[in-house]
Amino acid sequence: MPAGGLVPTGVAKERAELYQGRVTLYVVIACIVAAVGGSIFGYDIGISGGVTSMDGFLREFFHSVYISKQHAHENNYCKYDNQGLAAFTSSLYFAGLVASLVASPITRKYGRRTSIICGGFSFLVGATVNAAAQNLAMLLFGRIMLGVGIGFGNQAVPLYLSEMAPTHLRGALNMMFQLATTLGIFTANMVNYGTQKLEPWGWRLSLGLAAIPATLMTVGGCLLPETPNSLIEMGSKERGRKVLERIRGTDKVDAEFEDMVDASELANSIKHPFRNILKKRNRPQLVMAICMPTFQILTGINSILFYAPVLFQSMGFGGNASLYSSAVTGAVLAGSTFISIAAVDRLGRRVLLISGGIQMIICQVQYNKHSFSQHIITH
């Protein structure tokens, strides 16, 4: 079993059948509060693209883009071809990348709750600064703080959910992070659809409302218990067992507790974990762990979700139509996540992975076929 006892396999899977306990209300509430971290990430993905298409926002900070948007008819792309606007959108992801590297040792050494609280607080600061921004410097600082919050939250929240969830429901509860992300995207699209009518300050409301999930994440992080795995890793075995008994609703947790202790001791016995993971026996898992999320991102779905309103406008949609189309995209994304949650622990991860890949291939082929046909007709 890997460090932390997250994925029982082989002999460990047989031992997992000895685990006792039930899904307590304590676990459900803890997972819901923690999954709010996913809604933060989703909300920012959905809100930023909509805000950058609003006239009030562009007039305030990117006046040249606003002028281009009013006059560029032949080449829609030129409307948003601006270095400052690119810095506004990309600064969050760069900050998130750096924050993720910092968050990893903090999460391991000080616990999952600490990273969740840091992420929520950073995002709260970023949302407040962005909503009150008076110049580009404030806007970029707010985006950087949002990136720090996302870096901490995306690193700690899925791990927290996995470690709190019972084995037989680990897939479904862990996907609450993805569900919260998709609902955050959908909510942001609907917010943008409403606030774009509140000229010229609607964009401030869109950005400022991110403080709501950030506050829930910060306060919830202060109230949540630390995971048993984290407490054991930090040497507090007795506290870890007490928390485990509380979240499982029984004191018969010997098998699960022993596996957690064994996994922690095994992880601590490896002196050079990064060097160890590069060994030949670990390369298949390492390659899959890197390639699968990389290829998923390279499909372009994150860019589509982030820039959806801008993309739809560039294709000729009107302001209202582009935001409405973005909302429909977010609704489909959220709906498919509900289906995945219902199926993941019954059908398994592999079935969902393969079926999702097939769907993406079909859609890409159909899209390219349609584009090729349009090109032939045009020329």
From TrEMBL:
Family matches, as CDD domains: MFS_STP
Predominant location category: membrane
Membrane topology: Multi-pass membrane protein
GO MF term list: monosaccharide transmembrane transporter activity; symporter activity
TM spans (from-to): 23-43, 85-103, 115-133, 139-161, 173-191, 203-224, 286-310, 322-344
Keywords, ordered alphabetically: Membrane, Sugar transport, Symport, Transmembrane, Transmembrane helix, Transport
Alphabetical list of Gene3D superfamilies matching this protein: MFS general substrate transporter like domains (1.20.1250.20)
Keyword Transport tagged: yes
Domain Major facilitator superfamily (MFS) profile: 30-379
PANTHER family assigned to the protein according to its UniProt record, in alphabetical order: SOLUTE CARRIER FAMILY 2, FACILITATED GLUCOSE TRANSPORTER, SUGAR TRANSPORT PROTEIN 7
Family classification: Belongs to the major facilitator superfamily. Sugar transporter (TC 2.A.1.1) family.
Protein name as catalogued: Major facilitator superfamily (MFS) profile domain-containing protein
